[in-house]
Specification:
Number of strands: 12
Shape: elongated
Radius of gyration: 20 Å
Distance between the termini: 34 Å
Largest sheet: 6 strands, parallel
Strand content: 15-25%
Number of helices: 10
Strand order of the largest sheet: 2-1-3-4-5-11
Structural class: alpha/beta
Order of helices and strands: HEHEHEHEEHEHEHEHEHEHEE
Amino acid sequence: MKAVLLASVAFATMAIGAQAETYVLGMKGPGAGNPFWAAVEAGAKAAGAEHGVEVIVVAPPQESDVQAQINQIEDLIAQKVDGIALAPTDPNALAPVVEAAKAQGIPVVFVDTRGTNDGVSFIGTNNEVGAALAAKYLCDNLPSGAEVAILQGLISQSTGQERYNGAKGGLEGCGLKIVAEQPANWDRATGISVTETILAGNPNLAGIFGSNDNMALGAVEAVKQAALLDKITIVGFDANPDAANAIIAGDMEASIAQAPTNMGKFGIESLIKLKKGETVDAWVDTGTVLVDASNAAEYK
């Protein structure tokens, strides 16, 4: 697998010499099959076209493949790219790579997931606030004391931690009972299997918060197979097109919209500013919006 990844990076770097400035978007996962990352990529490419710079997009084969992402970024640092917008799979593990880039004079910003390196700007969502908004939806639509579950993302990432913290605080704060907190690693198939396990042990479950739409849609499939869709309220996070369609169909009640296109766009634009010696805010918040049946059509 490493050889394939390095080959793809080597191919991408063929374009580096052809442009005065080349910037990298290092995503946590591939855009193919994931509308969220596809939108981040589209935003970065649009910014590149608008500003006349080359944008290289790389991603590990899975969001849990930390070493693959490290290898990709190390190779691009060696090619002396002009800047890196990075969504770190594991902020602690990627911290030395970020420091290596900075030591080479290559500006870095974090997108989607906050890193641990001092002085590196973050372009992304206030995930804790967004997850609290999802929790409020469940609180408003379920009776006090109802049993709910949280499907967690990767807790090694700030995104996973913040969404879990926001959801847990909101759900417990309004009197709902959290009976399961299980990692499903941002993955739809894992969301199905984890939800099946949760359903087996919690026959009175009334609500599920999936920390991203992939996991929430996996929960929808598991709940539908158990013929419990009319008894369990499911809320996701990202408001991707698949989730919007599920909300319109009545299979899923709500999701939290981010602005992934802006993450990619603002990420590249921030690098261009830094390359020019300009400053970028420590945190560029792209905002969150509740998406339910009333506005889901806007996110299809």
